[in-house]
Here is the input.
Amino acid sequence: MHCCTNVICQHCQDISKINELWLKYSNRRFGFSVQRQIWLKLDCDWIKVGDRIGWRLNNCWKEYSELLFIINSPEGAFTTFWGGEGRS
Here is the structure.
């Protein structure tokens, strides 16, 4: 169990660092914590989040190749693991 705990802690540290870097280099526009704030404001509804941050268009999830990786993307649009393919 101790080994698993260490692995989990390491992943949390890694994710935290990735979030910090996104916040720093996007002027606090992108990152996991930004997405979490949006998610909480929108009642933990991923459909609403997708609509708000540009991951959905016309009631459909965009394909990864359709996402625009530009600084003026909607706040919270990145980082993404992208799981939109195949969603309805």
Remarks:
- The chain is about 50% helix and 5% strand.
- The two ends are 38 Å apart (CA to CA).
- The CA atoms of residues 44 and 75 lie 17 Å apart.
